[in-house]
Amino acid sequence: MQRLHALKLIAGGLVAAATALGTGASLAQTRATGDGGTVRIMISPAGTMGIAPAVIKKYELDKKHGFNLEVVSYSDQKSATAAIQSRSAEMVVFDWLATARLRASGTPVVGIAPFLTYVNSVIVPRDSKLNTLADLKGKRVGVAHKTGFDWVIMQAAAEKLNKMDLGRDVEVREGAVPLLRGLMEKGDLDATQMWNSLAPEMLASGKYRTMVTIRELTQQMGLPTVPFLMFSMREDYAKQNPGNARAFVAAYREAADILMKNEEVWLEHGARLKLSPESLAFFKEQVRRDLLKSFTPDMSKGLTETLGAINAVAADVVGLGQMPAGLLTLEYQ
């Protein structure tokens, strides 16, 4: 009986070992692994979107997951769009509205991973008495793009929260964001939209403060948290190379973890963006607060709801009647 009991224990151990080996093999087979090819990603070097790709390259997370990430800078959205349309690049980082417009116009890109939720803000002089959108009436306000999301969500928020037509009630001055910063410093603007990569230097100077963030405006309107910037891939490429799509998402998630925990890596980003130590502290805190690692099933619904809110006040500017189907996918997560 003792011998029989011993044999059963041995057999059970062999089964357990085989099961463990099988599980390990299964995990190895399902681990995100690319095909060794190059994935070209278009980013704007002036902003925040280059941070995660830089971390992927620094720590060779692309090689770890079996592909080569090539970072290509674009000067404006038109040049990035042209690269995607000509298949000179496989991926691009755009905000969700620009991505949706691109997909709706017949260029099938699909979001495979989020990056940041709403990160930009409205900046005013530190001693300004402006505290809400309603206070902007009759004031000179700088905007980066009249067709961009930040401006149209400000209009939607002003209408919903203050019953105010912001486009009519303020003096809008449109220009490149560095120019808007210069106009603020000259005293030619009362308030301005500001990118999150430039706002920290202004805040750290002590001469300016944040009147409101774009994220706060969406929250005040009751809109859900959604990705503002996201990593989008040509849909044909993703379908033909699903391993590379999954490998990129895996590499990005690891990069996001590094950004959340590693302090040293931020010094390099601060140097690239020419941020002082004081402004880098602002910048790091904000990015960590707004970083997203994964799409959730309800984000597509949230984007549709947000599109409805901005179309209610600026449909002619938004130029997108409805959300194109399949803008985001959870397939590669």
From TrEMBL:
Write one Pfam family the protein is assigned to: NMT1
Q: Any keyword Signal?
A: yes
Which InterPro entries does the UniProt entry name for this protein?
A: SsuA/THI5 (IPR015168)
* SsuA/THI5-like domain sequence ranges: 63-262
Keywords carried by this UniProt record: Signal
Gene3D superfamilies for this protein: Periplasmic binding protein-like II
Using the record, list the residue span of the signal peptide; answer none if the entry has no such feature: 1-28
The answer, when asked if Signal is one of the entry's keywords, is: yes
- Which protein is depicted? NitT/TauT family transport system substrate-binding protein
Organism whose genome encodes this protein? Hydrogenophaga laconesensis
